[in-house]
Amino acid sequence: QVQLVESGGGLVQPGGSLRLSCVASTNNFNTYTMGWYRQAPGKQRDLVATITRGGSTNYADSVKGRFTISRDNAKNTVYLQMNGLKPEDTAVYLCKAQKIITDITYWGQGTQVTVSS
């Protein structure tokens, strides 16, 4: 069982920035593809960004050019740098870990991001 703990959410004005962190409790962090997803009230959970163990990234069109996903395998941590935040970015942001080969998946509890003036 892998525990994922997110942090870094909060209230920010439009145009502002936040950096989310997700720490994984595993000794094999580099065997997981990591991702950030988000879910707004009454809406489905959507992909924000993913990063493979080799560092290849993938982004939702709505965040390209504004958000950057990165990982530090030595710290078992994945980050999401969010710049140019918009009110429509308001959601609970969840961290996901997906094991290579087996595709076993773990989710964090989420961190709230609210973009409002």
Task: Give the DSSP E fraction (strand runs of 2 or more residues).
Answer: over 45%
Q: What is the overall shape?
A: globular
- Segments where pLDDT lies below 50 for 5+ residues? none
Q: Kindly state the number of beta strands.
A: 11
Give the ordered list of helices and strands.
EEEEEEEEEEE
The percentage helix is: under 10%
The Rg value, from CA coordinates, equals 13 Å
- First CA to last CA: what distance? 40 Å
Largest sheet: 7 strands, mixed
The oligomeric state is: single chain
Specify the number of helices.
0
**Mean pLDDT level:** 96
**Secondary-structure content class:** mainly beta
Walkthrough of the structure:
The strands form 2 sheets. Strands 2, 4, 5, 6, 9, 10 and 11 form a 7-stranded mixed beta sheet that branches. The chain has strands spanning about 5, 10, 20-25, 30-40, 45-50, 55-60, 65-70, 75-80, 90-100, 105, 110-115. The relative contact order is 0.32. The mean pLDDT is about 95. The protein is globular, with a radius of gyration of 13 Å. About 0% of the residues lie in helices and about 50% in strands. With about 120 residues, the protein is mainly β.
